[in-house]
């Protein structure tokens, strides 16, 4: 039998521990970045100018300060929902709108999401039109911002509402083993979305054009042969309509898989540098990093659903957060809200795993393309994106999905170009 006070107390302990650790790490990073403000790290001095370095430091400090504000704000909002009875009041109102528990759940989750989106809108506006604008990265206009909001709302509703309905339908119809069937459904849905995203969803927000640079295509074809990869779907995305940040990524599944280059990236890199970046992305593909990540996340999802399967009818779960209606859809929402605080301290493990994958992809690129060209490309990306070269070691170990600049360049320098 789960104790109400114990459950509530444990949540508060994990909640405040998470908030304190997040803010502490951000403060440490800010101080460390400031400490290295006046001088470019020795190994980068021939490539990165002091002005560019200081811009990156200022940008990092500004983002981290804003993250502290966002962490505190989101924490306050969550406590208001859970500790003041606001979630209970919303659920009580929703109950009056429908006699179907499944539809009540859909309406509650929809209303909760819309309210949270509205509360978070000023934060998004500030990030885009003040923070990013200040450092010259924002290319978004108010019109594009509003269009994106409308599109996001439409896509989320069209896809999200049926998804929630089906999850709740499973919960209310298959009995106590619902969490197993829910896991199977979510995994199936996830693969469907990975397949559909590049072809049907991404084009709603950006234009994608096939790579047409003949010289680059020729080098890419040679790379594909060296890597023994029959892969020809390389696309350019018009990322410059929203931001000047550059990047490249792998997306899709089956026949819809593709590698996407931001137009901002291609405009700043040479052909050989682009090939090396592409070799890195192909390294992720050859090493099956994406599939491995899906397997790991699926196992954690199964574990989470199993735990929820033991809790979802427990009165303690509802009483701990002042909920009067003992409904499965409320326990599902509560679990989604509180679980991240119980798992937050696992973040460094996932970050380490991601960095390990990046090292493997870099090794693949160094072997099949050029370590020297990849280093050159990375340094241009660090400069263009104003990425700090001097993050706090603990902060980077905790959060970074990619190795810090020094570690990554040192690793690539160990290979013969």
Describe this protein with a few key phrases.
417 residues; mainly alpha; 4-stranded mixed sheet; globular
Question: Can you offer a commentary on this structure?
Answer:
The longest helix has 34 residues, at 50-83. Helix 3 (86-95) crosses helix 4, helix 4 (101-134) packs antiparallel against helix 5 and helix 4 runs parallel beside helix 12. The chain contains 16 helices and 4 strands. Strand 3 and strand 4 form a beta hairpin. It has 417 residues and is mainly α. The mean pLDDT is 92.
Given the C-alpha coordinates, what overall shape results? globular
Question: Averaged pLDDT, please?
Answer: 92
Instruction: Find the count of extended strands (DSSP E, 2+ residues).
Output: 4
Low-confidence stretches: none
The major pleated sheet works out as: 4 strands, mixed
Q: What is the element layout, followed by pairings?
A:
Elements (H helix, E strand, L loop, with lengths): L3 H32 L14 H34 L2 H10 L5 H34 L7 H32 L4 H24 L6 E3 L3 H14 L6 E4 L10 E4 L6 E5 H4 L4 H16 L2 H23 L3 H5 L8 H16 L3 H22 L2 H14 L8 H7 L5 H9 L4
Parallel strand pairs: 2-4
Antiparallel strand pairs: 1-2, 3-4
Helix pairs in contact: 1-2, 2-4, 3-4, 4-5, 4-12, 5-6, 6-10, 7-9, 9-13, 9-14, 14-16
In short:
The chain has 417 residues and is mainly alpha-helical. 71% of the residues lie in helices and 4% in strands.
């Amino acid at each position: 039998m789960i104790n109400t006070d114990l459950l509530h107390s444990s949540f508060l302990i994990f909640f405040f521990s998470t908030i304190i650790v997040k803010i502490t790490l951000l403060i440490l990073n800010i101080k460390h970045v400031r400490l290295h403000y006046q001088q470019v790290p020795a190994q980068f001095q021939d490539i990165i100018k002091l002005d560019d370095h200081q811009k990156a430091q200022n940008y990092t400090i500004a983002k981290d300060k804003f993250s502290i504000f966002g962490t505190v704000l989101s924490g306050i909002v969550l406590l208001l929902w859970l500790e003041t009875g606001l979630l209970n009041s919303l659920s009580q109102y929703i109950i009056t709108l429908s006699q179907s528990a499944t539809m009540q759940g859909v309406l509650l989750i929809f209303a909760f999401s819309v309210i949270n989106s509205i509360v978070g809108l000023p934060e998004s506006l500030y990030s885009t039109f003040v923070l990013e604008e200040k450092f010259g990265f924002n290319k978004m206009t108010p019109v594009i911002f509003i269009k994106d909001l409308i599109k996001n709302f439409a896509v989320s509703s069209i896809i999200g509402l049926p998804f929630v309905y089906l999850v709740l339908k499973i919960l209310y119809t298959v009995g106590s083993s619902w969490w197993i069937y829910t896991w199977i459904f979510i995994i199936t849905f996830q693969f469907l979305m990975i397949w559909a995203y590049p072809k049907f969803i991404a084009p709603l927000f950006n234009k994608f054009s096939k790579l047409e640079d003949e010289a680059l295509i020729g080098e890419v074809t040679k790379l594909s042969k060296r890597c023994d990869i029959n892969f020809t779907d390389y696309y350019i995305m018009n990322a410059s309509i929203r931001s000047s940040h550059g990047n490249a990524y792998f997306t899709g599944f089956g026949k819809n898989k593709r590698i996407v280059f931001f137009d901002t990236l291609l405009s700043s890199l040479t052909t050989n540098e682009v090939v090396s970046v592409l070799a890195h992305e192909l390294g992720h593909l050859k090493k099956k990093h994406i599939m491995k990540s899906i397997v790991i996340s699926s196992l954690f999802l199964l574990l989470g659903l199993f735990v929820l399967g033991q809790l979802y009818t427990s009165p303690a779960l509802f009483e701990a957060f002042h909920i009067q209606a003992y409904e499965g859809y409320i326990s599902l929402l509560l679990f989604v809200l509180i679980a991240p605080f119980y798992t937050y301290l696992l973040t460094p493990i996932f970050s380490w795993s991601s960095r390990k994958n990046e090292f493997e992809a870099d090794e693949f690129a160094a072997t099949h393309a050029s370590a020297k060209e990849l280093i050159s490309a990375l340094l241009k990306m660090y400069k263009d994106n104003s990425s700090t070269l001097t993050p706090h070691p603990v902060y980077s170990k905790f959060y970074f999905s990619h190795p810090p600049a020094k570690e990554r360049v040192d690793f690539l320098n160990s290979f013969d170009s």
